[in-house]
Hints:
Order of helices and strands of chain B: HEEHEEHEE
CATH class of the domain at 30-105 in chain B: Alpha Beta
Radius of gyration of chain B: 15 Å
Number of helices of chain A: 21
Strand order of the largest sheet of chain B: 2-1-5-3-4
Largest sheet of chain A: 7 strands, mixed
Shape of chain A: globular
Shape of chain B: globular
Strand content of chain A: 15-25%
CATH superfamily of the domain at 346-576 in chain A: Adenoviral Proteinase, Chain A
Radius of gyration of chain A: 27 Å
Largest sheet of chain B: 5 strands, mixed
CATH architecture of the domain at 30-105 in chain B: Roll
Structural class of chain B: alpha+beta
Helix content of chain B: 10-25%
Oligomer: heterodimer
CATH topology of the domain at 30-105 in chain B: Ubiquitin-like (UB roll)
Distance between the termini of chain A: 9 Å
Number of strands of chain B: 6
CATH architecture of the domain at 346-576 in chain A: 3-Layer(aba) Sandwich
Number of strands of chain A: 27
Structural class of chain A: alpha+beta
Number of helices of chain B: 3
Amino acid sequence: MNRKRKLTKLDREKEDDDEYSKSLKLDGSVSMENEKMDTEEIRINGSTSNRKLQDNMDRVSVFVEDLKNINTITPVENEKNEDEDIQVILEEGTEENPLSLSSDEDEDYQDKPFGDIHNSAISENSEVDKNKIELHPKTFQCGNYPDVILDQNQPIQFKENEIVCTLPYISILPSYSSSKKYSTVTITIANKQITSFQVTSFKTSVTISCIAKEFTFTKDWLSKPKPMINYEQAIPNEIVLKNISREEFILMKPYIELQSPWIKMMMEIVETSQSEKVIAEYPHFSTYSIKENNKKQTNNKNNNNNNNCTDNDNNDSNSNSEINNNNENRKQIQHNGKPFNPHDIVKITANDLKRLEPKQYLNDSIIDFYLRYIMDYFVKPEDKEKIYFYNTFFYKILTLKSVPDAYHRIAKWTKDIDIFSFDFLFIPICENFHWTLCIISFAYQDFDTATSSNRPTFIYLDSLDSQRSAVITKKIRQYLSLEWKNKKSIPSNGLIPEKQFNNKNLPIKRGRVPKQDNLCDCGVFLLHYAELFCRAPEKNFDEPLKKPDWFKNQDINDKREIIKTIIKRLALEQSDHTEDADYDDKTISTTTTTTTISLNPKEESSSSEYENEVENTDDSQQKGPVQKKEDEKNKEDGDNSVVQKEEALVNISSEEKKMEENINNEELKGKDGDVVLPEIEKEKITEDKCEINSIVEDKLPTLESSSNNTISPPNNEIRENDNPISTVMENKHSIKTISSSGVIDGI
Amino acid sequence: MSAKEEPGLNNNNGNEGGNAGEDQPVDVKPSDEQINIKVINQANQEVYFKIKKTTPLRKLMDSYCSRQGVSQNSIRFLYDGQRLDQNATPASLGMENNDIIDVALTQTGGSF
């Protein structure tokens, strides 16, 4: 593992299988002299390589450091720094003196970054002492604990072979006793030896052996799961430094690289004042309907009666125009026949979508999105009133404090509904980086009088069987009891007696369901459990979900593809409804510079968000869809046709409306043979390719040849566009995945 | 993205049509114009904002993020369990004085 390697030449990189990347993010607001005055984020991505990966096609992520043996840190209390290290962030915004956000600032508020601005503008001629490069961050982002303020007096120093920074001890071990709250630790990240680093606290220093391997999303790691302890207490994989002016950083950058010869620097300047660009919303406004619109309601009824999701999609895309015509008349907004709050929308960004690539963890957006999608398309119409999905944050908020305290925060969430009118309550839970699913059946039933078909049961589905369910069941039973009391007993003036849910009247049953054989798919399992359950709700609650052969693990891989296709289709549909101006607003300007990797010189083109490019080109290229062989999918079950159809629909939706029907027919005809896949498929292939951690130069020539799928651009238009697109994506991905290859003098 | 143009369903305060995008003058008393909103994060830290009912909440979110030094992409704003739309306004959401916005970190999971 720690074998020595001496690779100093750049071209040796290409041969180097070993890739571990490290990322430093510098997030700074621009100095006031900058005309733009945007808040920007500067990232330094360095990578070193010192490990053997079995498969150099693995994507290398940004994870740097972890403390496994975190308990071995011996912090020394820092009396002097008390009260200084962790500044109270809330200088303003107290109850007595709330932050005032008046509309008067509307026009220019974006130009004025809030908070302190490190206003040390450096003119072009100013000298940088290359031996003393210091970054003065304000905030240090640390894994799950982003709110840590760094000691302003302690710069981050880039030294010959290490990076040194100081941060409050509590930021690496928040659960530590409060008496140590104000001590600081200095972290020295040795560039040459990224598998370990030092934590120094005054004159004592502890070398922590870190297990970066376990924090890198590589196949290598994922195929060999190890039990992880203290994950949440781990040192983060990203270091984010705040408030460095862009000019300052640009001046420093070459020296940083000089100072740290073993780090390959990559810099990305992005705006942080804006959130990531949303590529799809669900539900999207174009699918809303209005109560008065009888036609649409009929449509919806048809949809509901028709459990085939693809048919639903057809109706949806065809009826979009009708709905839009009636936008002005809307009084009650409906989505799929149900009253709907137009602000209750899940927004999916490009990064969320990337999480559906194999081996990636799913996040709350994807889970929330797909649970809603299940509700809208896969739940039988007669079951619609029986199933309720909580969102992914419900359990999180519920468990922040004791349940009775947290209940007051949660109670409003269900103010408009009676959860005890539902047969099944689905509660997705994310704890310790693991998704699990609770299904509470027939909570309103009396346990003693219930039969096996409607018995109140707490079904817990854990695709790893790793979580202890005792706490979860206790908290949720507490919540249910409170909800019963506040929504049933109190409104009825005690006619309905209080009900305490306990292990007698709401016994827990762990479902015997297929389990994941890796460490990355639990989110997908959750979604698949939920979908299968909703398609055919369990009947026997004496032994609920005793289905070890419920589905095959292959279905899980397919599920990622399916969800991805659904989202891409939505994105494409919705891009038609979005005015260009909207995109311009959201475009994130990205400047890319690399020192060791010569990206395509077209910096300009990389400065726009690549999804934009892709979407635009998609539209222009729709006339010539790319033929693509179908073997990639390997789908044999019923879902196959779903995917095919949906992929075809991607095509349809962005065609002109009048063309829709014709093409639809054609697409369906071609369904048995090769499937006509839209441009977006090509994007996917390129994307996959991009994630492979080979060097950019490496990838370009081999891009098409190494792909299993033959892409044959049917007309010249595409061919012309081909290179720019892929270049843009190459650029983007080499940054986004922060997987630049690096050379290191090994350990 | 254009959902902002629509008044919310639960527009239960008197300020109908108080959307940012609308040109109609909002007829409210000055005292009703601004409301206090409490933003609570997962560590139960509270930040109070005073915001006009017609101001898009994007401003509150931006302000919160830059003050706290967090990226908007790493947190979610929840109002009554709904993800907060950047373009929604307190009026369109029917927010009342001293309403609470929850801030939750994004959740990811795959194993463990």
